[in-house]
Amino acid sequence: MQIFQVAPGASRSSMIDCVARWLSPPGPPLDVCSVPNTTEAIVSTSGTGDVEGRLARLEQRDERLTRALEQLAQREGGPVAKPGRDWDAYAAVIASFIGLLALAVSGYTAYVQRQQLRAQVWPHLVLWYSNVNLGLYVSNQGTGPARIAAVRVTVDGAPVKTWKDVQRVAGFTGDEGVILSTVHSLVLPADKDRPILQPRENEQSRVRFKDLLRNEAHPISITVCYCSTLDDCWTAGLGNVSPEVIVDGQAHPPDACPIPAGQQFLD
Q1: Where in the chain are the domains?
Q2: What are residue 5's DSSP bridge partners?
Q3: Which of 10, 97, 251, 265 could form a disulfide with 14 if both were Cys (CB 3.0 to 4.6 A apart)?
Q4: Who contacts 39 (Cβ-Cβ below 8 Å, separation ≥6)?
Q5: Cα separation of 213 and 211, whole Å?
């Protein structure tokens, strides 16, 4: 039996080198791998084949270990794998989109409902003359009540404040007179007519009243600002009304009435 010695804790490569030297012919009867703090390893000369087999297995393990290290290095140095889909992020985006869509639908629904409500309470005043029942009249041909906010009356193109001023400028005297109606702050229901100004039941009043009609001696003009219950306001007119005062079909807020405060009719 031959004996060789290796240091405790020696590396595997050192052990392989030592055994290879021991197996190299011609070897001495006893080969000692001298290192500090050695221990003895007993190898039977009759088991030389077993040692070679073990060396071959160790080399195979070294090769496998080397290949494994190379593959690990390639994996670490290779391209970063694509991350998987973040379904939570997709769900959050979809939920936000649905929320915005619901908000838009809600806003549009509120707008449509308000437009429908406006149509239900929309007033439309018309001022007109009548030669059958001689007089000036106002009619509400809309679907909702009309609240008259301001009125302007002119005779011969000059603003007047009261019906007495109208009679004075038109030259009413003696038994000549008119039957008048208050129009300032009037609320007129839908599909209703109301007389504004009529002559008294005598011929003198009727003849003098005709002077107030269009293209007569003292033509009268009336401008009315009126509003709905939703405070949408419009302007209507009778007679020679200036186009910068009347804008048919266009609504405006109550404080945008085109009649100046100093020209507003008081009756």
Answers
A1: 2-77, 125-263
A2: 40
A3: 10
A4: 5, 6, 7, 8
A5: 6
